[in-house]
Amino acid sequence: MLKLIIIALVVTALSAATLFEEASPEGEADGAQPFRFSHKLHMEQDLACVECHLNAPNGAAATLPPTRVCLLCHEEAQGEDPDEPRVREYAELGDYIPWVVVNQTVGHVYFSHEAHVTWGAMDCDTCHGDVRSATESFTGSQTANLTMGVCMDCHVERGANNDCIACHK
C-alpha cells in the first residue's frame, strides 16, 4: 500500500512539473529577456509560429514554448551563437526558460488566440507585426497599438461579433 502511495505521489509530482513548465510565470516584468532570441533565424528554418507557440491554435493565450519543445531542435548544438547552449542548460536543470511575457491584454478584456488564429484564419503578423524578421528578443509589446477602435474596425471588416460581451469580461 505504501508503495502505491509513493508511486502516486511521484506520478503527481511529475505531472505537476510538466504543467508548471508550460504554465509558469515567465521572468520579471521589466522586459529583460534571459538571452537573445532571433525569430528570423527560426523562421528561416521553415518553422510555423504554432510549432513553438503551441496553444495559439486552440487556446486563449499562445503561450511561450516549454523547454522540451526547444529541445526538439536544440538537443545538440546548433550553430555558433553563444546564447544557444543556454537552452540545454535550462533543460539540464529541469527548468523552463524564464522568458518575460511582453504581450498581455488588460484584465477586463478577453482575447482568444483560437478565435483569431483558427476560426478567423488570421496570420500572426496581423496583430503582432513583422515578428518573422525580428533578430532580437522582444522587450516590449508588439500589440500595444491594438486599441479597442482598431480591434472593432477589424471585427467590422471581417464580419466578426462586435458586441461588448464578446471581448469584455
Word description of this protein:
The protein has 169 residues and is mostly helical. It has one domain. The chain has 9 helices and no strands. It has helices at 2-23, 39-43, 49-52, 67-74, 85-92, 113-119, 125-128, 148-158, 164-167. Helix 4 (67-74) packs across helix 5. The longest helix has 22 residues, at 2-23.
A few lines on this structure:
This protein is mainly α and 169 residues long. It has helices spanning 2-23, 39-43, 49-52, 67-74, 85-92, 113-119, 125-128, 148-158, 164-167.
Which helices and strands occur, and which strands form pairs?
Layout: H1 2-23, H2 39-43, H3 49-52, H4 67-74, H5 85-92, H6 113-119, H7 125-128, H8 148-158, H9 164-167
Helix and strand sequence: HHHHHHHHH
Major sheet: none
Radius of gyration: 19 Å
Number of domains: 1
| Shape, per Cα inertia axes | elongated
**Which segments are poorly predicted (pLDDT under 50) over 5 or more consecutive residues?**
4-29
> What's the average pLDDT?
82
Could you estimate the helical fraction of the residues in percent? 40-55%
Roughly how many Å apart are the termini?
47 Å
Number of contiguous helices: 9
DSSP strand tally: 0
Class of secondary structure makeup: mainly alpha
Assembly status: single chain
